Amino acid sequence: MRSSTFLLASLASSTVSAETVLGAYIFSRHGDRTAKSTPPTVLTDLGYQEIFTSGSYYRSRYVASDASRPIHGLASDIVKLSQITASAPVDNVLQASGIGFLQGLYPPVGETLGSQTLRNGTVVQTPLNGFQLLPLQVVQNGANSENAAWLQGSTNCANAQVSSNNYLQSSQYNKTLAATSDFYAGMYPYVERTFAQNQTTFKNAYTIFDLLNVADIHNSSISLPSDADFFQLRTLADQHEFGLAYNESEPIRAVTGSIIAAEVTQALNGTITGKGKNVLNIQFGAYAGMLSYFGLANLTAASTDFFGVPDYASSLVWELVTNATVSNTSYPTEEDISVRFYFHNGTTSNISEPIEFPLFGTGRSPLPWSEFIASTGKFSIGTQAQWCTACGNSTGVCSPTALGDGSSSSVGTSSSDGGSGHHGGISKAVAGVIGAMVTLAVILGLELLFFLVGGFRLVSKKRLARNTGNGSVPSTAAETKA
């Protein structure tokens, strides 16, 4: 996604100065990584810096005592774990990105705050200058997505895979495949150590671009295509991936975006029904879900740049806002609550902040909570039974025995679902249906790794009880083609 072309005009109707932010949901892409075509992919030092910078920005926006848009009641220095939920699939790049982001969101608090006095008077100092431990929950939707070269490779949804394959049979695809044959033939000398000559075509548009983009950022010892050719490679990769991620006449192709939509509505609904007990939800995922959501929410009507693959560390943000009085004894009703959507392309910072965009082609922002729920409910997938039906899966976890009598009930149902038929919630178990099944040994191994190396606790839950604007200039030169 080329951030330099994004619309920067603010929404004239937006008046945010008198608002109170009740809660937020952030969906963030990972930072810079190694190439998909040379697995296993890993987060690079640059990627760690990018995602930490984004986390630090959202601290300055929502968390810090002098935050620009403070979330009501959110602890500013020492994290209160009941207020925040962070999650990522079982994926090295995404989980490492989650850890880096959280380090920026709640940094070490120093010796004064980072200490505890025991009953016998002993003062215990927190290691690493008051380093804070934030659990990162495991979701299996999108497991190992950064090692999957194909966009639908980790969804496990049969109908979504068939729909994406339909794009590869379409006249649009075949026309572009033929028209770009000579162009990709000219790119072969740059990728011949990884791709065969018959593989260097529009069919592998994204992985070819990804390989050369990683080389452009990290490898100074090899020759690379011209800037004009890089622009063409990126444009073709954007076209290819959006075609696989979304089709208006086949919404199941965007199944990942449908799941994200349900997770967002359930989490925000939990903030409302809990009257602010859990106020900040953060999920880390791949660009596939972002593209799918862009199509489903008709964000392409707000800017044609939403057809493009978002850069590393990009983020989508949904804010719950109100102009009503909020206090310890007074919480707004649903009628007084609205939703603002923001997007930022690439690393977010104080000099490159998220931009607000109108959802669902309405041209308006914010949207009343009831309208947001009703519109989202038209395409969200929030229960295991809904997913099995939509995906056409009938065996394994979608067998009648596995579904059971209560499988059709929604998770996190509220009276505000607008009668859409989709209640907007999805449990950890449902996410597990969609992702690849991960063995207990792998999960335990990852837990041990993060405990020993990152100092974090890895928490897996069976159900999701609580629970991503654009910057015109990337924060580093490396991101301009990321």
UniProtKB/TrEMBL annotation:
Keywords: Membrane, Signal, Transmembrane, Transmembrane helix. Residues 1-18 form the signal peptide. The chain crosses the membrane at residues 429-456. The keyword Protein transport does not apply. InterPro entries: His_Pase_clade-2 (IPR000560), His_PPase_superfam (IPR029033), Histidine_acid_phosphatase (IPR050645). GO terms for molecular function: phosphatase activity. Belongs to the histidine acid phosphatase family. This is Acid phosphatase. It comes from Cladophialophora chaetospira.
